[in-house]
Specification:
This protein is 76% helix and 0% strand. It has three helices and no strands.
């Protein structure tokens, strides 16, 4: 595999995480998040220790933005390390 474009990697992974977290926020808004969590914990033989709080638009937007920025930063750093190792 060749060199990775750091900006494209960051945008792709940041966008992916933003979409996932926007989907989670949508689930919270429609009231589907708690049953989904309960189901996932049940599949893993666990009790659900978390309670989903009521939907808040400001918190939802913050979640999506932070996820996008963190995803971008993670992928950018990964690509930089990959490219540095590849040069050797």
């Amino acid at each position: 595999m060749g060199k990775i474009n750091q900006n494209k990697a960051g945008l792709a992974f940041g966008g992916f995480l933003a979409v996932l977290h926007a989907a989670w926020s949508t689930m919270v808004g429609f009231g589907w998040a708690q049953p989904s969590l309960n189901f996932i914990f049940h599949l893993h033989f666990l009790n659900a220790p978390f309670t989903v709080r009521p939907f808040n638009l400001t918190t939802s937007v913050e979640l999506v933005i932070v996820a996008a920025l963190a995803g971008y930063a993670f992928a950018w750093v990964f690509a930089a390390i990959w490219n540095a190792v590849l040069r050797r």
